[in-house]
Amino acid sequence: MQNNTIYGCRVVKIDGIDVNFLSELSIDETYTTKIIIKDVERNCYSLIKDKEKVVIIMKIDGEYLTVITSYLLEKSFRHCNNRDLETGITLSYRSSTLLVGYVPKAGVEIAFDGFSCEITECIEMLGLYPFVIENKDNYLSKIDMNISGDVKYKFAGRGFSCFVAPIIKKKREGMNISMYGKIQFDDGSEKSLDEIKQLLRKVILFFEILSGETITVLEAYLNLKNSSFEYIGASNFSKSELSHMNNWIDTRSYLRKSLFKASDFGQSIEQAIDKFLILEQENNLAFKAYKQILLDEEINLNTYNKFLKIMQVVEGYQRAKVDEEEQRRFDEQKDRIISILETNDQNFVKKYTTYNGQNFRKCLNTFTYDSMKLISDISKTKARDTSKEVIDRIINDRDVYTHASKELEPQLTSDEMSVINYCYKTFFRILILSNMGMETSIIRKRLFFERRFRDYYEKIFGIEIESYDLEDNMGEFDSAMWGYDV
């Protein structure tokens, strides 16, 4: 199925009702499906007109398609002068779920055993390398280079797994040695479509934390027993290559060592997945703001709204962590005050007085110190001294933009704001990765090879990131691929 294409097909079933209607199916550039069903009979229309979702089964070139509609887009009527004739009704539906080759069984809830999917730069994001190549350093001058390969497979826990396989493609003009990889899910139980969509969103978010930019599903297949069905609509756009590191300061070669990969968790990937699912739930507001930031960057939008979203990430992340000692002191003080009040006042204080967590300055101070400690292993005193000025300016500008102050003026230039945005977005990513169990040494090495962050970090905090040799071992994928790309 291709996007921006119109297919003529025949509807054979609507919500379990056997029908025979001509229809048009199209998939637009956002991978949203539109179905136009023509000459729908009145009795059929009466049964489905008030339903929010309708399951439509179509047939095209001998293959069945199932569309689960999102909503009725529009309807039109072709009135006939002769009352004995059926009025022609045209229905237009929009959907983000199209299943190729799948026909649901009558009276059985639509559910699947699991799924497999390919995402943006899937091979590099997984970090697995399936080949053994001899003489790779002289591959341009040697004919007797030996190449062998095998599937690299890894269980990630909670039903998740992944693999990378070697592929040799033969073409008229030559032969390409390549790789193919997928992410899979099967926890032994059937999942509804809504549950599968949620799991796919978590997969995407996991890799967006690793990459620092928007990731999309390039293809997805839903599994049921021994069959597999293509799922169109898992992403609203297709993005095959990472882009944010191809800038004026980083090159494609450095991408191999600066990009965090799933393999960076080593044998602790299962614990990392467990921890990520907990963090995603606990820091829901911070993750939502983070995804909005990535979308802004995808369309090159850089405004003070993005700066405010970065601050939402900071505040959401810090306030998700309850300071037990502060909570205890607050509760003790609240109980003391209640004990000396009259009954009506006591009820009011109990109902409306709650501990709201850290104020924003403390959130920002703690967030900044924890990040700098992770990156540079500096003391809290040094972190406070090197970050005090920039934190004061951040708080000033946040107050200006959120409170529409007439007394305060913005202190950060647009360039300075961009630098702060990039640094604090990276801080959030590495704090999450550290909490997921990634070793501090790997985080520091990856950041050293991302020259843009290294430059920005030194610019606003005046601290150089510890250097590493370009040939430093960063895992099998980086070691094998380093030097192949330019």
Protein model, in words:
The protein has 486 residues and is α+β, with helices and mostly antiparallel strands. Helices cover 41% and strands 25% of the residues. The chain is built from 15 helices and 18 strands. The protein has a 14-stranded antiparallel β-sheet, with helices on both faces. A two-stranded antiparallel sheet has the order 9-16. Strand 2 (17-27) and strand 3 (33-40) form a beta hairpin. The longest helix has 24 residues, at 380-403. The protein is globular. The model has no long low-confidence stretch (mean pLDDT 88).
Percent of residues in helices comes to 40-55%
Q: Judging from the principal axes of the Cα atoms, what is the shape? A: globular
Number of strands: 18
What count of helical segments does DSSP give?
15
Question: Major sheet: size, sense and barrel closure?
Answer: 14 strands, antiparallel
The stretches of 5 or more residues where confidence is low (pLDDT under 50) are: none
Widest sheet: strand order? 6-7-3-2-1-4-5-8-18-17-10-15-14-13
Question: How many angstroms separate the termini?
Answer: 34 Å
Task: Name the average pLDDT.
Answer: 88
Radius of gyration, rounded?
28 Å
Structural class: alpha+beta
Instruction: Report the β-strand fraction as a percent range.
Output: 15-25%
Question: Keywords, please?
Answer:
486 residues, alpha+beta, two-stranded antiparallel ribbon, 15 helices, 41% helix, globular
